[in-house]
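User: Sequence for Sushi domain-containing protein below. Tokens please.
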Amino acid sequence: FFCISPQIGDCERPQATETFVLGTDALLLNQFPEGIQVSLQCANGYDRISGSGSTVCSNGQWSKPDLFCKKKDCGQPKAKPNMKFHISKGTQFRAIIGVSCDEGLITTLRGSSYQQCLATGWILANSRCQIVTCDRPGHVTNGNSSWTSEELPKYGETVQYTCNEGFTLVGKENITCTKNGKFNSQPPKCQ
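Assistant: Structure tokens for Sushi domain-containing protein:
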């Protein structure tokens, strides 16, 4: 085992920047002698716009690389049903945007409430909006409800109550499923 001392004119390892890094051809090199040419490539999250990325060691200095890298722009996220995106700091690499669901009809967010722009594009974390439902309407003794479906009532759907003959309805005749998954009133009573 022996150590090779750097010679006059040799260069230090090229330093990575925010926009580019040392290419794979030079990653394992320990020395960069006079005249060596290495390649640089765009850093993660940056796209090559122009240039080869070559740089040459000359008199202990690296030539200015002709590589131009631009930060990746994910653009507008792909629309999803009933989902809204809140973009406040752009759509470029590492940008984070908020996600919410349309008011009322679809309001329960499953997954993450934010998305992030990465080198591969938007990471949507399986976010989706889900229909808000209420529990089955309560049964009323000596009365009936208009709800006959096996499914749960959805946001905005109304259940109507009636009393059997000889009984009086006390409370609201109609109750509606609200955006928070609760009815706007308790079922009435028939007395």
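The domain at 143-190 is CATH 2.10.70.10 (Complement Module; domain 1).
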